[in-house]
Design a protein that fits this description.
4 copies of one chain form a homotetramer.
Chain A: E1 2-7, H1 12-22, E2 27-32, H2 42-45, E3 70-73, H3 80-89, E4 93-96, H4 106-113, H5 120-123, E5 127-128, H6 131-140, E6 143-145, H7 149-163, E7 172-178, H8 193-196, E8 201-202, H9 211-223, E9 229-235, E10 242-249, H10 256-267, E11 273-275, H11 283-286, E12 292-298, E13 304-311, H12 315-330
Helix pairs in contact in A: 1-12, 6-12, 7-9
Chain lengths: 339, 339, 339, 339
């Protein structure tokens, strides 16, 4: 049994990770922390998540001696970079589900997050955690930067196209629609039912959302040249799910069949990627699952193509992918606890 | 008092037109038809729409002699083209809220709607009914083709940019999100609560939705050259409202201030267009109103700009705009019954 | 023009009152306060409420000299009782939309609200503000206690039955379903979209919700004997609206026709009460209106009857009724600004 | 492996049963029928339900020879009574998820369903399928009448109280709130998103809904005297889930502790019943599960008590309970495929 520690277990992501891990046949939860609820039983905070086992939530400061094989950080941005080192020093491996270890370059991190990176020396060794694209490096990594929710679906949709050079890396438009849980469990006016219900709104559109930096960094890896992404997120009246509609320019006259074949070649054996050229991805088909549904459509009369991808922002976009990374790192069946 | 006839009063659009017209100080409803409910009292079908006046719904075949000044068709596509002539011959003026009289060229109509146009000679005289853009021609028109819901918000957002030549007409991307009432009151599986709730899905994306033809026709008028639009509608879990997020390429280095100034110059005095460069358009701010909320944002680091527009698909996108057209045609205050 | 002051204008109730009052032909808004946003323009907080007039929000402490004819308190419970006296002393009349002046007896108040009442001497003169039931006393009142949202629909449904003695006052069951705005605009976990969406939950059921005391007090007035009410509120996934389903025991063998006739006699001329014995009340028919929809049904095979009532909790259940009270107090048309 | 046949696999209940059964370790799906989609692959109708196995939907008329151990009818009311006999004659066992075999007395059936019962001789042998209450009889039954969605939660909540005689069987009030899937997948105006969203409405309240007969029959079994139930269903804006709030009169001065102890004694070991006296049942905690969450609250100041129960109408209220019955009938672990 892999012993898993969860740091920050009472946000939506941490709770989802706890829920998934508690049902995982090869994992036991070694500890779970919450600064807000430390000292309380998990069952008092989330009565339905793990009724059979009454774990007590602890403070991050109180687990310095607690044993674990892998530790997942589901903390707010900026916490993990100060704390991960201590766990690595104790021989544990870490998956950081926050944004602290997704960037190669601390200056790029700072440009998007407006704070200095306090553990720049760890960035080099951190692996960007999309198993479908980085499986081998994740297997042996001590520190995995688990991707953001928006980047996951977008990068999975574009990587096969960019690595084969069939689309232009410099003019990519992502129009993304996210459920409200993507904004977290924080008490913000924007998250209130009455403010969100029965209405859709854009926010931080253009080139300003923090996930732009992460997306461009990863896409550039596949394109071999600097990518540029226009990114427009929209707050959508649903609890979970992200649908990303991505507009690209096709080079070399690739047909729809050519493009779909690239997906098939790249992802045909992937357990968590479902390709369909009949129905469109819909968020309801992926919520509560670790699937990413993908489709590509060439547009008549121009060189445009449209990639549509759907994931559950809390599962494949966060906790599920974290667990998938834990599986890969630990030599477990990659799908264990996730089907 | 202007006597208004409503053909097809029991779909969502017809019902909305009835609701608005029944509260209009300068309009009286001369008759209302419904093939499905003919012979029934309106109050039996919609108990709350017009409780003070118990009009009986009639069949379209039974109103050949009924007097009216203006007749609005809220019928399914393909009905108005066979019926409008008879009303015009009797000296009435017509606003067709269906798609039958939006196109200049019957062959273009046929290419998008897959049926021959049965009244091609009337297309020449029909005026495309966006008052903010065609007010003078509408004033004297006998036949107005009321725009589609998606085209209204998109065209209003792009016309000022195209007529000043500051964006490229050949590479426009519209990513639109519509509430479910846009699909009508028909009994289709796709319209059921359980199929739509808590999920978002694309449909007919690329260059295939019928509104593409209408949008491209109108945009070409402003650009003076053939326009090309990629158009991706999404079915969104809300009752009403359309948010269109439109991606354009800016020419000539126009700044955000330049672009916003074009909006201000074009629409500053328009009662139904609200410009904002602070908050984004949200559908909840426009539902149940005839407003179109508009904003434009240049994107850092590229020549892209993003136009966001929000309307209520049943009001400014259909019945409200029809009434606005009736106001203009009849010499009434353009905002009467609509504020 | 009646000059209206609004104390606490930035909660859902205060905002709704502002919205309604700003469109009222006989009222001008003298001032609006907000402790949270004092010093800011209203338009910065709510961009769409009153775009034509850019009022600055003030602190309650800063309006000691501001002139007004009527002042409405939309403050949290416990504020008005400390502040109302000063306004009355300056010759203004007050409608308290909070709970501070709904009770006759300060000890009853304390038993439900767990705090002493700091202005018990004012309770005697305060009139309970349901115009349909207390119109004459409201007309001349200096201080009106505007009813709670749940009590409004329940009391309107039961008063005609109790004053005619046709139902048992001692065994009344109210099962109420409220939209989320009833919980206010406060940042509470329970109000987050993700916690509420797609689920229904009871809360404070039985004889514990604070509105029980208010309902029992008012019902006892009509029954002439002590009433007893079981009250079960449910948080329902909708933004606005309350549906109350009330179960009563019929005495004296009154038929359904008898009961409906009591409603007709009592409310037939009331502009804001709509009686229907065909369709059931639905919250969608009353949201954004000041209507209370009412129906009564005798149950086959027993002495039970069921009263169903629907209101908008923010309009007839709060701000709309407050404005109706202001109309009555000020000699304005009772429906002004409310149809 | 138990071979399961599903008759009527393309409504919401049949689809849910297929989904659950396809993941059940001890069951293989022998055939699935659909009159509407016969001849089509299941994957064309529901792309995500069973992607690994491409079963072809057949007509009920085409499976006369198909082998199976148990057959579940998920057909509209009135179909099973004509068809079940043929399957029983071939030695198969049957769970009827429709209403045809829930009643003891064909005349009672007819009084609620307004049609004659065409297989009255089978009613005697049919067992009412709530395993928690009828487990032994279900084990050996050839024909199980699977309960209605509303009755399941109500009966589970009341049986322990009635069999101990602590409540009055003659004055029970059930106020139930159901998600929209309870109305089925039929194309009815009332099921459209726009008609249901953001609003709550009662329907068929009092003593008229068909489930009243079923509830009263079963409750009478436990009370040993004729029971009487007032039943008010409400259509609630959510996809799944039923919350029933039931008001009863307590006899003999039983305390809340006494009542809770009855639940504990009856259900303490039941895997699908969760008792809680802290938080209330909420539908979100039971959707997509086979759980019934239960709680009881004595009401201060009277002899009333309130039972709150929550289930997923499609799982414990239909397909999940059917599978639980199949497990019991077949000697499988009762929770197999259901946790």
């Amino acid at each position: 049994m892999i012993r898993l520690g969860i740091i920050g277990a009472t946000g939506y992501t941490g709770m989802e990770l706890y829920r998934l891990a508690s049902r995982h046949p090869g994992i036991e939860i070694a500890f779970a922390t919450s600064e807000q609820y430390s000292g309380q039983k998990l069952g008092e905070v989330f009565p339905r998540v793990d009724p059979d086992r009454d774990i007590t939530l602890r403070s991050l400061d109180d687990i310095a001696e607690a044993p674990a094989d892998v530790v997942c950080f589901c903390t707010p941005d900026g916490v993990a970079m100060d704390r991960v080192g201590a766990f690595l020093d104790r021989g544990m491996r870490v998956v950081d589900v926050s944004s602290d270890f997704r960037f190669d370059d601390p200056e790029v991190y700072t440009s998007w997050y407006s704070r200095p990176h306090t553990a720049p020396s760890l960035l080099d060794s951190a692996v960007y955690g999309i198993p479908e694209l980085n499986r081998d490096r994740i297997r042996t990594a001590d520190l995995v930067g688990n991707p953001g929710c928006y980047p996951t679906g977008v990068i999975l949709g574009l990587a096969p196209l960019l690595e084969e050079g069939v689309i232009d890396a410099g003019q990519i438009i992502v129009d993304a629609k996210s459920g409200v849980s993507g904004a977290g469990r924080g008490l913000k006016l924007r998250n209130l039912y009455v403010e969100v219900n029965d209405s859709i709104t854009p926010y931080n559109i253009g080139h300003s959302h923090r996930h732009v930096g992460e997306i461009e960094q990863e896409l550039s890896r596949f394109s071999g040249e600097r990518s540029y992404v226009v990114f427009s997120p929209h707050l959508t009246p649903m609890s979970r799910g992200i649908l990303a509609t991505t507009y690209v320019r096709v080079k070399n006259g690739a047909t729809n069949g050519d493009l779909a074949a690239l997906y098939e070649a790249r992802y045909g054996d992937e357990p968590f990627i479902r390709l369909s050229q009949s129905g469109y991805p819909e968020t309801r088909f992926v919520t509560w699952t670790n699937y990413c549904d993908l489709r590509i459509d060439r547009v008549d009369g121009s060189d445009f193509a449209i990639v549509t991808s759907a994931i559950d922002n809390l599962v494949k976009g966060a906790a599920g992918q974290a667990l998938q990374n834990v599986n890969v790192m630990s030599g477990l069946d990659e799908t264990a606890g996730l089907l």
